Amino acid sequence: MNKDLSHISHNNQPQMVDVSHKNTSKRTATAQTTILLPDAVKNVLLDGEIQSKKGPVFHTAIIAGVMAAKKTHELIPFCHPLSLENCQVSIETTSDKNIVVKCTCNIHSKTGVEMEALTGASVAALTVYDMCKALSHEIIISETRLLNKSGGKSDFSSP
Question: Model-level pTM?
């Protein structure tokens, strides 16, 4: 078996990771996506929200992020279907009026929830873009990254 890539079999074929031998433990992961806004979008920020013809942007993006995290296994091959116990998406504006989306997922399972957190943060950011693109196509979704994970074989915290 290829020890570097868990989704590649010993005969170099794609595969789902077998977690049947693992113990169930509490797994938590938080991911973050940063969105850089052009002035045309920054100018409509009011009280930490953007109202659009499609509705409240951040509220809609939060719902989209949770929905996406719950469907990660339908989007990414070999992700195990998980029944998330908790998924929280938050959207905050920075002092320079850019946006930080965070998604935290929790579960008691044999596999982690990093991909669910990353998917939730990403889709929430894409929803912001979709709802604000009428104002400007210069919105930049600049970075999506795992901030931390706990449970399972190892913990991780980004520097």
Answer: 0.90
